[in-house]
Amino acid sequence: MFSKACEYGIRAATYIALRSLEGKRTSLKDIAKETDSPVAFTAKILQQLSKNKIVESVKGASGGFEIQKRNVHTIKLSQIVYAIDGDKVYHGCGLGLRECNGAKPCPVHDKFIGIRDGLKNMLETTTLLEMTRGLEVGLTYLKR
């Protein structure tokens, strides 16, 4: 459904949000380690997230990546997905076919529309704050 970069981007943003809520910045190496992502790949993803104003990069000895606390409450997963994968997740075929639409549907077209709409709703209503709450109670994927 999502590209590998997008999956890592969601994990990275969630980890940065968690650390930011603790009042801490986090380094590229720590983000890569905690999200089980290669450092160079993580750097490219963070560059995209920074360019789209989802994360902030602070240079210097006490630098690192952070998200303003007020933004943790408002950033939606859809913003992260859009920053990395664009909006293709909302338009693609469930089977990955190039020409799939109402006039020329694939075998799962009608069923997949409902799934895609549900996914869009979930992405547009889930905030980074909600993601960090899952981490705080140990319900998700990071190595903490």
From TrEMBL:
Q: Which GO terms describe its molecular function?
A: DNA-binding transcription factor activity
Instruction: Provide a GO CC annotation, any one.
Output: cytosol
Q: Which domain of life is it from?
A: Bacteria
Q: Which Pfam families does this chain map to?
A: Rrf2 (PF02082)
Q: What PANTHER family is this protein classified in?
A: HTH-TYPE TRANSCRIPTIONAL REGULATOR YWGB-RELATED (PTHR33221:SF15), WINGED HELIX-TURN-HELIX TRANSCRIPTIONAL REGULATOR, RRF2 FAMILY (PTHR33221)
Protein name in the entry? Rrf2 family transcriptional regulator
This chain's source organism reads Maribacter luteus
